[in-house]
Amino acid sequence: KGQKSDSRGALIVLEGLDRSGKTSQSAKLASFLAEKGFSVESWRFPDRKTCVGEMISLYLLNKSQLDDQTIHLLFSANRWEKRSLMETKLRSGVTLVVDRYSYSGVAFSAAKGLDIQWCKAPEMGLLAPDLVLYLDIPPEKAAERGDYGVERYEQLDFQRKVAHHYKILCDETWKIVDGCLPMEAVEKQLREFTLECVSKCQRGEPLSQLWL
Ligand code: TMP
């Protein structure tokens, strides 16, 4: 504290229920920042390209069975295996727009009945986002969107429980955006919150860790 840290990139996370529009909005937000001349990368969790990510992907496609604790820890490991690269990128000035993070990890596992504190424990020490953009959409609305129900968790009752747990996790880094607004209106709000956050990080806001 009190020490002036260097300029860095921002860690920006998008969260929301399945089909809330996160993926298209993350892509739009990343291209917007790139057009503005910022150095930016688009990331997502799970990262299905790693070995751990392949195990997660098989589970999500219902091609493998794992107990709730095991898949929870795999999702967490999938973030830990990216932690040092994430830190290097941020410190070198790259802003990361990340589609899902630890909040998905906790909200989805807690929705199955696992204890929240148990779910948070393996996430402790990961980098804390500078901004969490939560796309708020009623579970019923999400269920009406295209391709719903293809993957394991895309079921209305379950998504209702996930929404409940997201609300418990909400803290001062979160901005809740109404995901039912027209796409352009959502886009505009996300841009405003993001620009504010990116300049804060450029001015040297220190990096912090999650849930310690
Ligand atoms: P995706 O559709 O954004 O690729 O995410 C795949 C599913 O995995 C989605 O239903 C949310 C769920 N999930 C978890 O259960 N735990 C996690 O840690 C993450 C990142 C996603």
From TrEMBL:
Keywords recorded for this protein, A-Z: ATP-binding, Kinase, Nucleotide biosynthesis, Nucleotide-binding, Transferase
Coiled-coil segments on the chain, per record: none
This protein's record includes keyword Repressor: no
UniProt pathway annotation: Pyrimidine metabolism; dTTP biosynthesis
E.C. number: 2.7.4.9
Family of the protein in this entry: Belongs to the thymidylate kinase family.
Protein name (Swiss-Prot/TrEMBL): Thymidylate kinase
